[in-house]
Amino acid sequence: MKDIFFEDKVTPVKGLIRRYKTRVLIELTYLCPVDCEFCFRKWKKEEKRESLTRKDIDKIVDYIFKNKEIAEVILSGGEPLMVLDLLKYSLEKLSALDQIKIFRIHSRALVTAPLLVSEKFLKILGQKYKQIIYFSVHINHINELTSETEKVIEKIRKTGVILYSQSVFLKGFNDSVEVLEKLFCRLIEIGVRPYNIYQCNKIEGIENFIVPLKKEIKIMTELRKNISGFACPTLIIDVPGNANKIPVPLDFWDFKTNTLIDFNGNRVEIDE
Ligand code: SF4
């Protein structure tokens, strides 16, 4: 199955995905400068779905206005930096809604195409909105943090938006303590808070990328022991179907015996 998260079933208005009560995601475009093999939305690009129009955004704004519990909007794609006029229009229209408390922008352009971080884009970010903008950098390996990428991260940080990162575990690429320790520690040094690291979505044809969950837990447990908690993202499994993003407990807990295991391997009983 290609639509593993049933996204089309939870699309009440064209371009708007609603898997959660209070937050929605807008797929501004399916354009992207790269074709990641592990991309779970690449089938939409293959179907040649078109970018949204201003009229589509107006309909989305109308839907959100009628659903007052929605407080958070994620502007995503594809690559949202490839449709700057639409991104600007969406931010301006949506920021007028009092119910919207935060924006998030999901991008991998800082790694794949840093030139997309243009003056025009920085100006859009620097505009005064009622809401704070959180900017997610999709980055998977320390080698992706090139000097060019670091330079554009600095430029974005100066606009006042808050940066955080999201990563995907990829077998043979970043499934090691060393690689991720370097990546996450460098990210906090340059002002990007590691937020989530996902188990790679199990879409057809990418079985070779899947890291066994036990190994992912072991790596994240080691990292939690070795580096600042501030540098440790949460390990997440995005459950296929119309489900949710579920945090994975690390090896510090033995729920059967009601004990925790401290950083030195000591078992400590906890009260219920
Ligand atoms: S950068 Fe993001 S949207 Fe583009 S192909 Fe990769 S995962 Fe998909």
Which key features would you list for this structure?
272 residues, alpha/beta, TIM Barrel, 9-stranded mixed β-sheet, 3-stranded antiparallel β-sheet, globular, binds iron/sulfur cluster
Any overview of this molecule?
With 272 residues, this protein is an alpha/beta fold. It has a single domain, classed as Alpha-Beta Barrel (TIM Barrel). The chain is 30% helix and 20% strand. The protein has helices spanning 42-46, 54-66, 84-95, 109-112, 119-126, 147-158, 177-189, 213-226; strands at 16-17, 23-27, 72-76, 102-107, 132-138, 162-168, 192-198, 234-238, 245-247, 253-254, 259-261, 267-269. The strands form two sheets. A nine-stranded mixed beta sheet has the order 1-2-3-4-5-6-7-8-9. Strand 5, helix 6 (147-158) and strand 6 form a beta-alpha-beta unit. Helix 2 runs parallel beside helix 3 (84-95). The radius of gyration is 19 Å and the shape is globular. The termini are far apart. Iron/sulfur cluster is lined by residues 32, 34-36, 39, 41-42, 77-79, 108, 112, 138.
The ordered string of helix (H) and strand (E) elements is EEHHEHEHHEHEHEHEEEEE
Share of helical residues: 25-40%
Strand count: 12
The side-by-side strand order for the widest beta sheet comes to: 1-2-3-4-5-6-7-8-9
Question: Would you state the CATH class?
Answer: Alpha Beta
DSSP strand (E) fraction?
15-25%
Task: Compute the average pLDDT.
Answer: 95
- Work out the count of structural domains: 1
Poorly predicted residue ranges: none
Radius of gyration: 19 Å
Distance between the termini: 42 Å
List the ions, cofactors and other small molecules found in this model. iron/sulfur cluster
Gross geometry: globular
Instruction: Give the biggest beta sheet.
Output: 9 strands, mixed
Determine the number of helices (DSSP H or I, runs of at least 4 residues): 8
Helix vs. strand class: alpha/beta
* CATH architecture classification: Alpha-Beta Barrel
CATH topology: TIM Barrel
CATH superfamily: Aldolase class I
